[in-house]
């Protein structure tokens, strides 16, 4: 079945440094969503990408969907302590199964 | 607009018992999905309901079941609990289907002893 892997599993950065997490699917995705989960909290929707090669920005966050629609990335510029949390991608598997599969997540720690 | 609510927030059960968890979606949302979150397996999809019909189901045993009522509220039931069922159970609602923006509830932390 479909697998969605994220790398790295964990990243520790100094405040002000940049951060990138990568999401890779074993199959082509119809779309991809990104969520953030703060420690002790629940996932919060960040964005959805649908088109091949799509790039979207939200302030310091930049999201990309690969040309082949099998990978995606989230880049944070100049991290802040408020960026701490686990970032998940979630891909929709096309075809009959039509399930939303969550990636393994990347835990970001930001040291002030 | 009120967010997704889940009850109870915490639950302790013993092996072999059954449990029912409840989820009230955001008003107007017709899709409710359930997820199991554990440190080892991450976020795993259980099932999705839309207009009282199960639309999708994850790879969980038949002990896990759910239903949705006409007011879109949903319940999830786990029978014959096992130690491995200890997890955070999250409910998420969406306006149309789970492939659109999902709003998660705070979750129910289930501990099986």
Could you characterize what this model shows?
The complex is a heterodimer of chains A (112) and B (113). Chain A contains no helices and eleven strands. Chain A has strands spanning 4-7, 10-14, 19-25, 29-37, 43-49, 55-58, 61-65, 71-76, 85-93, 100-102, 106-111. In chain A, the strands form two sheets. In chain A, strands 2, 4, 5, 9, 10 and 11 form a six-stranded mixed beta sheet that branches. In chain A, strands 1-3-8-7-6 form a five-stranded antiparallel beta sheet, with no helix packed on it. The radius of gyration of chain A is 14 Å and the shape is globular. Chain A starts with a strand and ends with a strand. With 113 residues, chain B is mainly β. Chain B has no helices and eleven strands. The model of chain B has no long low-confidence stretch (mean pLDDT 94). Chain A binds chain B through residues 1, 30-31, 33, 35, 41-45, 48, 88, 90, 92, 97-105, and chain B through 33, 35, 42-45, 55-56, 58-59, 90, 92, 98-107.
Topology:
The complex is a heterodimer of chains A (112) and B (113).
Chain A: E1 4-7, E2 10-14, E3 19-25, E4 29-37, E5 43-49, E6 55-58, E7 61-65, E8 71-76, E9 85-93, E10 100-102, E11 106-111
Parallel strand pairs in A: 2-11
Antiparallel strand pairs in A: 1-3, 3-8, 4-5, 4-9, 6-7, 7-8, 9-10, 9-11
Chain B: E1 5-7, E2 10-13, E3 19-24, E4 31-38, E5 42-50, E6 53-57, E7 64-68, E8 74-78, E9 87-94, E10 103-104, E11 108-112
Parallel strand pairs in B: 2-11
Antiparallel strand pairs in B: 1-3, 3-8, 4-5, 4-9, 5-6, 7-8, 9-10, 9-11
